[in-house]
Amino acid sequence: MSSDSIKKIFNKGKGVLQLTPTWVPRGFNEPGRRLRLHPDDYFAFGMERGGICERWLGSVTVALNGPKTGPTEGMSYVLADAKTHEKVLFADVVKELGADLIGDSLQETYGTWPTFAKLYDYDKPLFHHLHLTEDRANKIGRHGKPEAYYFPVQYNSYLGRFPLTYFGFDPSTTKEEVMECIRNYGKQDTRITELSRAYRIQLGTGWYTPAGVIHAPASVVTYEPQWNSDVNTIMENVTMGEVNPVNLLTDCQPQEEKGDVEALFDQIDWEESTRCDYKEKYFRAPKPLPETQKGLAEKWVAYANEWIAAKEVTVAPGAKVKLSDQACYCALVLQGHGTFGEFECEAPGVLRFEDISGDEFFVAESAAKKGIVVENTSSYEPLIILQNFANNNPAVPQTL
């Protein structure tokens, strides 16, 4: 699409872009079927690719999904024309608009929108795994992946088969015990989570998980703001009876380190993974903001870290408010319907694989600072929106 066409779309939305759903399949685990996708479409990529377990939001990142991954799999698209459903790759829009979209600080520091969010939805818990730090990810040409979790009530009428998350290792665990699990990955069920500790999920709360901390997320639909990367080292070889292939342990190692047990172990941030006050430091209760407008309630749900942030906004039935922020963001409508700037917005009921939706938007920094007029046109239910930010919003709380 031409530069002029992209600028025309941007100007028509007055600094707001409507994005279309980005579905991501995974070859492991199984879909929890709570993403509001039509029941017939969870295997829309083909049976060999596995089920759709994730929806990515405001992404310029390609999924790390093996050799059959499509060239733009995991990347978001902007709706260019609602009548024809013409779309343009969000990454191309970010590249074309630059600071006009993401602001000067992100453009100068990263040259792109450096984060995204996702909804992930697995009926079984995920395997015990970690995400590489920035330094280690750079060795394979990728970025590190710190992430935050928030557990929205609206997507969680069913909590899956194991609504507990393992974080790190019990402080009594020795390094040798973990290394022995790595050595035996291809030999026997190592039961590595016996060395860990689990916390039951509380809906409406969240956690922050630094890169390098090993964890096994619960079978709960999770809203996850994260850095723009998809790097995993999986150290649990059997998860609820499902065998995890050995390549999942070594895929994110540099070639010269492949199979090196000590190098694999060194990916773990041992200090953070074994800290006695893990919950005290990384659990995130929501932080409500003072009321500034009648009918508007805001609370931070991801905060107090150097990478990412998220806020939940509630607009009361019949209310019309101005939503102002200090940085660009991606917005997801969780519940209700109304208007978001120039656009109609609504939380979806059931979406087909190719459907557009009215629940995902990207807001330029200038538009965010000016303020987006949001109206809840329902007489009955609240309009609830999640916003995810990068690390350039000065309003984000930096303490618990």
Summary of the model, kept short:
The protein has 400 residues and is of the alpha+beta class. The protein contains 11 helices and 27 strands. It has one domain: Jelly Rolls, CATH 2.60.120.
Supply database-style keywords.
single chain; 400 residues; alpha+beta; Jelly Rolls; 9-stranded antiparallel sheet; 7-stranded antiparallel sheet; 11 helices; 27 strands; globular
Helix content: 10-25%
CATH topology: Jelly Rolls
- Provide the domain count: 1
CATH architectural category: Sandwich
- Oligomerization state of this entry? single chain
Q: Give the count of helical stretches.
A: 11
Sheet with most strands: 9 strands, antiparallel
Outline the low-pLDDT stretches. none
Q: Would you spell out the secondary-structure blueprint of this structure?
A:
Elements (H helix, E strand, L loop, with lengths): L2 H10 L3 E5 L1 E5 L24 E7 L19 E5 L4 E4 H8 L1 H4 L1 H6 L5 E6 L8 E2 L3 H5 L8 E4 L13 E4 L7 H9 L14 E3 L5 E4 L5 E2 L5 E6 L5 E2 L3 E2 L2 E2 L3 H4 L10 H5 L4 H4 L4 H5 E2 L2 E2 L7 E7 L6 E7 L4 E4 L5 E7 L1 E4 L2 E4 L13 E4 L1 H6 L1 E5 L6 E7 L11
